[in-house]
Design goal:
The protein has strands spanning 4-7, 10-13, 18-24, 33-39, 46-52, 57-59, 67-72, 77-82, 91-100, 103-107, 111-116. With 117 residues, the protein is mostly beta strands. The N and C termini lie far apart (40 Å).
Length: 117
């Protein structure tokens, strides 16, 4: 069973920075892709950023230039560096890991990020 554990959430003022970390119970290279999703109250869960096994990254338009996804191979972690945060970034952030053959995905328990104006 794969486990993903997030950490680093909390309360931050608008314009500030926060770093989220996702620790995997197995090598992050075994995943075809890993990513960060978020879900705000009353809204659907959306993909914020992901990184594939080749290191290619992608971001939702609203966070481009502000958030950076990265991985630490030695620690088996995938981090999300959030800078210049905005109140609309407030959400529960979830770590996600995917395998494609066969396709399956795993979720962390989520970590709350609250941005005050």
């Amino acid at each position: 069973q794969v486990q993903l554990v997030e950490s680093g959430g909390g309360l931050v003022q608008a314009g500030g920075s926060l770093r989220l970390s996702c620790a995997a119970s197995r090598s992050i290279f075994s995943f075809n892709a890993m990513g960060w999703y978020r879900q705000a109250p009353g809204k659907q869960r959306e993909l914020v950023a992901n990184i594939n096994s080749g290191g290619r990254t992608s971001y939702v338009d609203s966070v481009k230039g502000r958030f950076t996804i990265s991985r630490d191979n030695a620690k088996n972690t995938v981090d999300l560096q959030m800078t210049n945060v905005k109140p609309e970034d407030t959400a529960v952030y979830y770590c996600n890991g995917q395998f494609v053959s066969p396709w399956r995905q795993y979720w962390g328990q989520g970590t709350q990020v609250t941005v005050s104006s």
